[in-house]
Amino acid sequence: MQAPAIHGTKDGGPAAFAPMTMFYRMNYLLLLTALGGLSGCLEPNSLTTETDASSSSSGDDTTSSSSSSTTDESSTSSAESTDSPTTGLVLPVCGDGVLDNNEGCDDGGANGSAAACTPECEPNVCGDGHPFAGQEECDAGAQNADDAACTASCKAATCGDGHLLADVEVCDDAVNDGSYNSCSADCMARAPHCGDGVLEVDKEECDDPEDPACLSSCMLARSCLVIHESDPTLESGPRTIYPLDPMTPIEVFCDMETDGGGYTFLKVDVDSPMNDLPYPATKAETICAEYGMHLFIPRSAAHLVGAYGVAIVDNIAPVGGGIKGSSADYLQILGIYPVVVGKSCLGKPLTPRACDEWAASDGAAWYVSDVVKNVSEPDPDSTCQGCSMLYTWNPDGTVKNYKALFGSGGSSLRFLCDVGDKLPAI
């Protein structure tokens, strides 16, 4: 076939391609005719008359639509079957022996309430309600408690386990040997103890909650230290103690803070016509002894500052006949004495480490100053055994000066007494 001539405009516009377009249309129609004939040869029974084709084409759209719908549903059904069990796909389940993302364990047929892996595919732990064989004695789930039949540790409650079983046991301290402050062997009663109203002579000083001298620890309130040990929450302030006997109350000031707490202070004022003045340290000791105490001995720098604070404030009424409740004079004499007669500790700080030639009346710790305040003291000439010095004080509670006096030593109208059972930690 001779190719058609191509005519176009000079500028190559649409007119140039019109004959070409007609050419391709003719060839396309010829190709369709040929293919139609070939189809008829390959599938003779598929040939239809023009009427049949027309009828099929002109029939209602229901048949066509139905066919199309069937095809779409079939396609959809096929797609959905991918996630359906009918496709043969095995879905993850607890108990199949395969550990899935939402499982803590899966031992397949070995899963069980008493096994390491529970029926819920979770590790068997105390508190889940599954008693783990060989590991837990019991497991009541949320009902587990130390006062219940199954404890918080999944142990069966028993007498002697240290847990008081509610409504069953009276006492269970895990000792249960019937000894003082323990429990009976069957957990049905307490052994003798503080607060039972029965005095255990070798264990208690008292056992009477109605007795003001008897503390909750069943100890007599003999000092501020005993009171502090019975109840460490108590604050500093006036307290009643019984250093002589339960029938003789004495009002003192208790320091419940310094050096851990427990220092006792009794104020004595002898400024009265009824007293034979003066009162040097040795005579003051006799007055303190009448109250079951001794002349005040500062045990540490902090104790000394604390004592000064007590002395200069009206906090407790003094004993001894005088009425002055506050004065630095309460620290003019102390229970610290020279060990030997004669010169001693000249120009040395007044502490046991620097001056071992002076000592507290009870031989325990003492403190006046770790700085020399008077280089010519203690008494350079005639310090007498048993004589104490006279002290003056700075407003901050530190010693200002000290001086030994001839004869009986320093004396004062006022002084402090102390039980002496409280010592600072070394």
Topology:
Elements: H1 18-42, H2 50-58, H3 61-80, H4 224-230, E1 237-241, E2 250-255, E3 263-269, H5 281-289, E4 294-295, H6 301-311, E5 336-338, E6 358-360, E7 389-393, E8 399-404, E9 414-418
Radius of gyration, CA atoms, in whole angstroms: 54 Å
Task: Please give the CATH architecture of the domain at 209-426.
Answer: Roll
Q: Note the run of SSEs as H and E.
A: HHHHEEEHEHEEEEE
Output the structural class. Answer: alpha+beta
Q: Could you say which overall geometry the principal axes of the C-alpha atoms support? A: elongated
Helix coverage percent of residues? 10-25%
Average of per-residue pLDDT values: 83
Tell me the major beta sheet.
Answer: 5 strands, antiparallel
Beta-strand content estimate: 5-15%
- Could you give the order of strands across the largest sheet? 1-2-3-9-4
Number of strands: 9
How would you name the CATH homologous superfamily of the domain at 209-426?
Mannose-Binding Protein A, subunit A
Tally of individual helices: 6
Q: If you consult CATH, what is the topology of the domain at 209-426?
A: Mannose-Binding Protein A, Chain A
Sum up the structure in keywords.
Mannose-Binding Protein A, Chain A, 5-stranded antiparallel beta sheet, 426 residues, 6 helices, two-stranded antiparallel sheet, alpha+beta
Structure description:
With 426 residues, the chain is of the alpha+beta class. Among the domains are: 96-157, no CATH class; 209-426, Mannose-Binding Protein A, subunit A (Mannose-Binding Protein A, Chain A). 19% of the residues lie in helices and 10% in strands. The protein has six helices and nine strands, in the order H-H-H-H-E-E-E-H-E-H-E-E-E-E-E. It has helices at 18-42, 50-58, 61-80, 224-230, 281-289, 301-311, and strands at residues 237-241, 250-255, 263-269, 294-295, 336-338, 358-360, 389-393, 399-404, 414-418. Strands 1-2-3-9-4 form a five-stranded antiparallel beta sheet, sandwiched between helices. A hairpin with an 8-residue loop joins strand 1 (237-241) and strand 2 (250-255).
